[in-house]
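Marked as duplicate of an earlier ticket. Keeping the data here for the record.
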Amino acid sequence: MKILIVGGGEEASYIIKSLCDRGYEVTIINRDAEDCRRLSKISKAIIVNGDGTLPRVLEDSGIKFADRILALTPRDEDNYVICRIAKHSYGVDAVFALVHDPDNVEVFQKLGLEGTFSITATVSSLIEQRSASQAIRNLQALADGKIGVTEIVLPDGAPSIGKALREIRFPPSTLVAAILRDGEVIVPNGETRLEMGDKLSFISLPERYTQSLEALVGGY
């Protein structure tokens, strides 16, 4: 498999080394000469010192033959340009991007990427999960991480208690799939009212998880 990485600073060194160690053909484009020297010492990747937002540089680096593209520069604007060129100009099958500002995730997803990674959103989500640890019982990812299924128990004082599901301001793409109450399974509809101690299973997109949790349990 041929993998083209654009960017790849110090924080991406382990990813790059791991891909090379697995036998993938890795090419890295990086405009920082010092990063290029460092990466050449720790990996077997082909290193190109250049601007990966330029189609000419991408083409000279083998984008036409790449099976995967990873945009890992420190600027969302550059990563967006790289992904757009890869997806729409060269038709690369699988394109992934590092997104620093969570507000930009949706813009990237409209390009039809196979995956986006937001460090800020991940850290924020982990903080929220920690603060809600008394309520969360289970969390798992499905469809290669594109959707998440969470099981929570509504604690005393949760803002959703007493409300019908239609009254709760859920973010888009959130669905309460089932409620376990007093040993009975309820398949809810918009008129179903929530009670303290209800065990809910809800489905959400990863980037909407924190908002979904906040709508149900608030700051718990």
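See parent ticket for discussion. Helices lie at 13-21, 33-42, 55-60, 76-89, 105-109, 119-131, 209-217.
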